[in-house]
């Protein structure tokens, strides 16, 4: 009997994979000193994973690792956390980082989480800022993949988890270069998945919408979308490591909303963006609230905000004082 086209297609669709135990897995997390990276390291190490966090803020990374390692030991599942300096835009730094944490064992999972989000009108953005966004958000993912991917292919197993953003699917005015960088991560991940899947290496995308971290200080959430926490995103990262999936959104329901919206005629999409405010969420970010983060992302001191008296160095905001982050 001749099988139908759908039956033949079904034969090539893999079944639901069993959930794997995280105990003993070696996981590298970039941008792990704070925010989503630190929350991810906390969850994975509590479940028994051996986690190495890399961050350009080496002192904070070491402090975070010490705290998380102590918590992991109390959890009693064998998890641990170590830290080493990492500039994701530099090949030599990647080599030094992987050498420094090699004692943990072969890398099972790389979580490419490091990212920056300077905002502002595209035509006024300094060239150096544009390069920083693309270097950290895109080149960092590419170099990280090349640093650990070949060994994964040689072993016939491994996973790359790339934390992108909802604006990697729906661009946001006011963050044109940032949106471009996240579109690039989405495209790179999808192509990479096709290349590495035959070798037993999974590639997973995580796309947060609005997250309460310092990165989005001064950014208001769009109408109808409640902000999520760094731990909410970390929970999704943990879930896709336990059972690898190609793409997960945070919150999960926004994937269906986005897919439905993108199927509509463009004038309707534009009208919906105006109605929900997604066409100006990043453009309307509060410069005063973002000053400390923007300075750190650019590697400079906070600039004086128009209308304010300049007279001292601005203090760094905590994640609790920050507003919402667009992932």
Automatic annotation (TrEMBL):
Any Pfam family hit: adh_short
Q: Which Gene3D superfamilies match?
A: NAD(P)-binding Rossmann-like Domain (3.40.50.720)
Residue span of region Disordered = 293-327
Q: Which GO terms describe its molecular function?
A: oxidoreductase activity, acting on the CH-OH group of donors, NAD or NADP as acceptor
Q: Which UniProt keywords apply?
A: Oxidoreductase
Task: Identify the domain of life.
Answer: Bacteria
Q: Of which family is this protein a member? A: Belongs to the short-chain dehydrogenases/reductases (SDR) family.
Q: Which PANTHER family match?
A: PKSB (PTHR24322), RETINOL DEHYDROGENASE 10 (PTHR24322:SF736)
What is the recorded name of this protein? Answer: Short-chain dehydrogenase
Biological source species: Nocardioides perillae
> What does the organism's lineage look like at the top?
Bacteria, Bacillati, Actinomycetota, Actinomycetes, Propionibacteriales
């Amino acid at each position: 009997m001749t099988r139908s086209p759908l039956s033949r297609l079904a034969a090539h669709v893999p079944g639901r994979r069993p959930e794997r135990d995280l105990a003993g897995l070696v996981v590298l997390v970039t941008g792990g000193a704070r925010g989503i990276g630190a929350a991810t390291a906390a969850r994975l190490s509590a479940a028994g994973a051996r986690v190495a966090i890399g961050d350009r803020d080496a002192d904070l990374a070491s402090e975070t690792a010490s705290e998380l390692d102590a918590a992991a030991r109390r959890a009693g599942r064998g998890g641990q956390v170590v830290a080493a300096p990492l500039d994701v835009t530099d090949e030599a730094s990647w080599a030094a980082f992987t050498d420094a944490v090699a004692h943990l064992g072969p890398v099972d999972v790389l979580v490419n989480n490091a990212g920056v989000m300077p905002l502002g009108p595209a035509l006024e953005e300094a060239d150096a800022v544009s390069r920083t966004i693309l270097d950290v958000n895109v080149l960092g993912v590419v170099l990280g993949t090349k640093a650990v991917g070949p060994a994964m292919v040689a072993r016939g197993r491994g996973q790359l988890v790339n934390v992108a953003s909802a604006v990697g699917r729906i661009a946001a005015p006011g963050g044109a270069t940032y949106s471009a960088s996240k579109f690039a991560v989405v495209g790179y991940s999808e192509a990479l998945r096709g290349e590495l899947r035959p070798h037993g290496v999974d590639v997973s995308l995580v796309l947060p919408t609005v997250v309460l971290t310092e990165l989005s200080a001064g950014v208001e959430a769009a109408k109808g979308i409640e902000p999520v926490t760094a731990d909410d995103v970390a929970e999704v990262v943990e879930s896709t490591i336990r059972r690898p999936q190609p793409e997960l959104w945070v919150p999960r329901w926004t994937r269906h909303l986005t897919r439905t919206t993108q199927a509509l005629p463009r004038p309707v999409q534009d009208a919906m963006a105006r109605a929900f405010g997604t066409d100006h969420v990043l453009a309307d970010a509060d410069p005063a609230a973002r000053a400390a983060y923007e300075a750190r992302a650019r590697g400079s001191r906070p600039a004086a905000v128009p209308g304010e008296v300049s007279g001292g160095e601005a203090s760094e905001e905590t994640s609790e004082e920050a507003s919402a982050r667009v992932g």
